[in-house]
Amino acid sequence: MEKKILLIGTGGTIASEMSGDGLAPELTAKELLRFVPRIASFCAVDCVQPFSLDSTNMRPENWLAIAAAIRRHYDDYDGFVVTHGTDTMAYTAAALSYLIQRSPKPIVLTGAQKPIWFDSTDSKRNLTDAFLYACRGCGGVQIVFNGKVILGTRARKTFSKSFKAFSSVNYPDLAVLQDEHLLQFIRNEDVDGPLFWDTLDPNVGLLKLIPGMDGAVADYMLRRYDGLVIESFGVGGLPEYGGFYDAVAQAAGQGKVVVMTTQVPNEGSDLTVYRVGGRLKRDLRLLEAYDMTTESAVAKLMWILGQTRDFPAVQRLFYTPVAMDILHPQA
Ligand code: ASP
């Protein structure tokens, strides 16, 4: 039987037109489909358009709106395609992975580096592949882009211009699509849901350390936010100058949640290796992201703090894998 897919348009380059100041999203989901008539030959599509944004302008409330659209229509469709700007797509994919868990139906994000009306565009291929995966692929949240299928909790934008915009971090690609053939390497077996959530705590910050940074910056952010992800160096640690340790100790004592991670793109953190990290890990009430992406660490913290501030519960939720977001054996 023909599959029914819901297309959720949210803007991005794929839907952009040239404005006086540069590209800006204009085309609706329905208009996008007209550029790729092939899609109507293998599935039935309905469209919704909760908003139309350059993804630079997206906020956690937009992630909730996408999740709500999927929840509202979940029983009526076999799969979901979300067209989205590439710039913050990895954050949205991570957030949706926490807001909609164990989905037996595919939830596929896609977009493009060039608008759909450009002569040389990746839009048509990405859109076609996304629909093919929504019809034939596995449940759960994933990004389909440039012929690759990447788990929503593992995606990162690693190229700002070329078609190969996304990489899977610390986890293999799930599948590839070649000439409309799907080669599924890894099957998502966690599909006994769906489970939906509709709250996030958006008051979570991210601090990237640089050598010589003033610890007062960390102190300010720890006061400003309920949870702070700190992207430190290497396998992880805090400078021993500048009052970083005391700032984190004080914040942790006040119930703030700190997650230590690394700005190194691959292989993740291990705070126990060096004194700059070991002391933190031993003495302070903080968490470590291990092999998670920063995007997933941020979204997971928002999801958890939307439910509880009780540290043992926060810790248990953070280290419980969701959609293969964390694999480290010590987590
Ligand atoms: N600035 C655009 C966006 O994220 C870039 C893109 O879609 O590729 O909406």
What does this structure look like?
With 331 residues, this protein is of the alpha/beta class. The protein folds into 2 domains: 3-196, Rossmann fold; 204-319, Rossmann fold (3-Layer(aba) Sandwich), CATH 3.40.50. The chain is 29% helix and 24% strand. It is built from 9 helices and 18 strands. It has helices spanning 29-34, 60-73, 89-99, 123-136, 215-224, 244-253, 275-283, 294-305, 311-319; strands at 3-9, 16-19, 22-25, 43-48, 79-83, 100-101, 106-110, 140-145, 148-151, 155-157, 166-168, 175-178, 181-184, 195-196, 204-208, 227-232, 257-262, 287-288. The strands form 5 sheets. Strands 4-1-5-7-8-9-12-13 form an 8-stranded mixed sheet, sandwiched between helices. A 4-stranded parallel sheet has the order 15-16-17-18, with helices on both faces. Helix 3 (89-99) crosses helix 8 (294-305) and helix 5 (215-224) packs parallel to helix 6. The longest helix is centred in the first third of the chain and has 14 residues, at 60-73. It is elongated, with a radius of gyration of 20 Å. The termini are far apart. The model has no long low-confidence stretch (mean pLDDT 97). Aspartic acid binds next to loops.
Brief description of this entry?
The protein is 29% helix and 24% strand. The model has no long low-confidence stretch (mean pLDDT 97). The strands form five sheets. The chain has an eight-stranded mixed beta sheet with strand order 4-1-5-7-8-9-12-13, sandwiched between helices. Strands 15-16-17-18 form a four-stranded parallel beta sheet, sandwiched between helices.
